[in-house]
Amino acid sequence: MTTTMPRTGSTPVVKRFPWGGLIVLATAVFLSVTAEMIPTGLLPEMSTSLGVSESQTGLLISVFAFAVVFTSVPLTFLFRRVPRHLLLMLVLVVIALSSLVGSLAPNFEVLVVARVVGGMAHGLFWGVVGAYSAHLVPREQIGRAVAITTGGGTLAFVLGVPLATAVGHAWGWRVPFFGIAVLALLGAVFIVLLLPRVDHRKHLEPSTDTRALRAARRRGPLDPTIPVVALICILVSVIMIGNYAFYTYIAPFMIGQMGVPEGQVGLLLLVYGAAGAIGVFAAGAVFGRRPTLGLVIALAATGVSVLLLAVFAANPVVAIGAFFVWGVAFGVIPTLLPTRLMHAASPEIRDTSSAFYSSSFNAGIGIGALVGSLFLDSLGLASLPWIYLIGLVVAGALLAVTPVLTRRARRV
């Protein structure tokens, strides 16, 4: 696709849509998300190899997520003047090195340190990649560019995590970590060779008028949409806590409760990922203009599927069908929640809202894995879907309040 840009002369300038650069960014997103989620499919093997419990191994997800939450904003500010092209390349190198150390880790403690470093790089990466894709295109194509870039995250769940799980079952859990290290280094090379450079520094210093406007806003009343934005951030945290209290330990649940052979866990995760891709498509095609309705339906479908998993885990037909429905429904939720956020937030606080949303999302992942670990130790695998169901009920109640706060904000 091409975009015609105006020019002073008689011949217009034609700017091609930057497919190459966006695909490079999407590939980097794919590698980063896969690196984050590798342990979810390999908990039993990692637990046995490292001599720690499965609940303790699940905390590898928590430490990664908490590293993202606590360091992404400070690191993004610290490196704000570093050229984005160089920064993305260096971040992928750090992800590669942390994965390499993880693959060679002699004990659990070294692996935790490697995960913390990887989480710091992951947080900085997400602080840059969305804005980078927006810099590559005209204003009217920003949404499309960001969607292509973040599609790499969906592909990580559809392909990356299941493939890493299958490889780990075949050749040991260390091999996928090593593979991500090699691929991340190749990704850094692709960034150097194929990703167009952007100049972000012109946006760092606000104009005099912009500074004056910001000062006036600080002196004035708070933005009326802040309460609904805060509620949506709490909502996403609650959903992620419930989801990752269960999903972090999905491999042990499949083996212990569903009776799935260890070698077929990767195949079922591939089914879940494919279902999630269907959900992402449905979110955009069916519920793009009515995100609240889509979220209500997705939360209800998730609740029914998780309830079926809790009650009929030993029935393979019901359990696998419920697992597929869960994948479709959960593919809808992370796609529509940011849409709901952008609908609710006023234009003046959308950037800040997105930053808090990202932190809330990752905080939910980290807390969820921790909560799942505690309940796994105290009540066993069978308790985990019930924890998720409680989270879904709370999330439904919060979602019911958001239209009220939105209408109240619009009246102000």
From TrEMBL:
Its localization reads: Cell membrane
This protein's species is Herbiconiux aconitum
Which PROSITE patterns is this protein grouped with? MFS
The entry's keywords: Cell membrane, Membrane, Transmembrane, Transmembrane helix
Kindly provide the name given to this protein in its UniProt entry.
MFS transporter
Entries under InterPro entries matching the protein: MFS, MFS_dom, MFS_Efflux_Transporters, MFS_trans_sf
Question: Is Cell membrane tagged as a keyword?
Answer: yes
What positions belong to coiled-coil segments? none
Species lineage: Bacteria, Bacillati, Actinomycetota, Actinomycetes, Micrococcales
Spans traversing the lipid bilayer? 59-79, 86-106, 112-134, 146-171, 177-195, 226-247, 267-287, 294-314, 320-342, 354-374, 386-406
Task: Give membrane topology per the record.
Answer: Multi-pass membrane protein
Every copy of the Major facilitator superfamily (MFS) profile domain together lies at 21-408
